Amino acid sequence: MQTIATRHEPHTAAKGVVYRTTCQNPGCGFKFDLRITPENAGLLGGTMPCPRCHRRGGMLKREGRLGDRLFGAKLMFRALAVSHGTGEDEGDLFSERLN
Ligand SMILES: [Zn+2]
């Protein structure tokens, strides 16, 4: 019998984390799941448009952990993002590198 499973796959099938993001553009409020992988982790320090209202310049703000590899987040826009007080983040998978 040589049918011994040779699978030692680590749990990297779904890599990255999911940000359950809510658009903060007034009148939109679209919720979407944004998967952040090492390839697009730059979104965390940059901006992205809302997939629905297409308002550009949305900044992803993490809100807190919802579950395993699942975070709540808001897509903030400059007019709304009065001050961003990141700093006391314990740095997870992709620690935010905003200064
Ligand atoms: Zn939107």
How is this structure best described in words?
- With 99 residues, this protein is mostly beta strands.
- Helix content is 0%, strand content 32%.
- The protein has strands at 17-23, 31-36, 47-48, 58-67, 70-76.
- Strands 2-1-5-4-3 form a five-stranded mixed sheet, with no helix packed on it.
- It is elongated and about 60 Å long.
- The structure holds zinc ion.
- Residues 23, 25, 28, 30, 50, 52-53, 55 line the site of zinc ion.
- Residues 23, 25, 28, 30, 50, 52-53, 55 line the site of zinc ion (ZN).
Bound chemical compounds: zinc ion
Order of helices and strands: EEEEE
Number of strands: 5
What is the rounded distance between the termini? 58 Å
Shape: elongated
Q: How is the biggest beta sheet arranged?
A: 5 strands, mixed
Please state roughly what percent of the residues sit in beta strands, choosing from under 5%, 5-15%, 15-25%, 25-35%, 35-45% or over 45%. 25-35%
- Provide the residue-averaged pLDDT: 79
List the defining traits of the structure above.
mainly beta; binds zinc ion; 99 residues
Outline:
With 99 residues, this protein is mainly beta. The chain is built from no helices and 5 strands.
Outline the fold blueprint.
Layout: E1 17-23, E2 31-36, E3 47-48, E4 58-67, E5 70-76
Parallel strand pairs: 1-5
Antiparallel strand pairs: 1-2, 3-4, 4-5
Bound molecules: zinc ion.
